[in-house]
Amino acid sequence: MQPMNSVTDPDSLPPEMLAEMESALVDESAGPSAVLLDIPDALGIPMAGEPSVPPPTPEENDRAFVQSLRDSGLLVDLSESLLDVYFASLDPQEDSDARQIDLLELYYAGTDEVASARRVTGDHVLFYRESDEASARTIIDSLCLLLPDVGEVKLEKLGGDEGALILRRGDIISAVDSEDEEGANLDAPASVSVRELVRSFNVVLGRQGVRERFVELAADGTRELYVAIRVAEALMLCNADCLGDEDVDEVMEYAAW
């Protein structure tokens, strides 16, 4: 009897068994052996003799981000020459999120006030900067101006100064979550989260049957940028990893679609 730990000489095996073993090594349907061979490729590890692919540069990442926004109908004024000017002013050492919001600020809130206003209106963009010290009511007014067909939406406290915060558009009411509803001064800066105001505004848009909704395009703690687009464009940007909400379900919930 052959010992259990001995190695079988391949030449001693029947030809049909050798053929079956060779097939198992190359056929994906053969199970673990085939899966094991695919591990280096699945992990992005180059096989012996294959050149490694360097990671994209910060500018390459930024250009991919810009192209995704263009594909969704945004940044129509951003020519290649203007983009090169913007890139020259960005810090290559900053992380990707910071560079992208810097880029968007140059485009939507640059020194050319006329061009910036046209771009903000055309792309339906809310660009919030903490340094602007905008109040909660001012933010809601700005959202209404971006989508004028919505009409007037009011931020108020239901039942008086001690009541819950709501947005009201005629008979449509949308609750606004706030950590300090009773003490919130609606005319003071940063009294209510901008992200929460936009979320509640989206609920009003949904109940009015407005197809465009606001999604968060970028944020860094002191700056936030929201854009009103339709669901197809929002999903395109989500799949391209260009939104603050990375999961499709989160995007759909936030926009009240």
For the CA atoms, what is the radius of gyration? 27 Å
Q: Tell me, rounded to a whole number, the average pLDDT.
A: 84
Tally of DSSP helical segments: 10
Question: Strand fraction band?
Answer: 5-15%
Give the total of domains.
1
Identify low-pLDDT runs. 1-7, 32-37
Describe this structure in words.
- By secondary structure, this protein is an alpha+beta fold.
- The chain has one domain.
- A three-stranded antiparallel sheet has the order 1-6-5. A three-stranded antiparallel sheet has the order 2-3-4.
- Helix 7 packs across helix 8.
Summarize the structure.
With 257 residues, the chain is an alpha+beta fold.
Summarize the helices and strands and which ones pair or pack.
Layout: H1 15-26, H2 32-42, H3 58-71, H4 80-89, H5 96-108, H6 113-123, E1 125-129, H7 136-146, E2 154-157, E3 165-169, E4 172-175, H8 194-208, E5 213-219, E6 223-229, H9 231-239, H10 248-254
Antiparallel strand pairs: 1-6, 2-3, 3-4, 5-6
Name the descriptors.
257 residues, alpha+beta, three-stranded antiparallel sheet, 10 helices, 6 strands
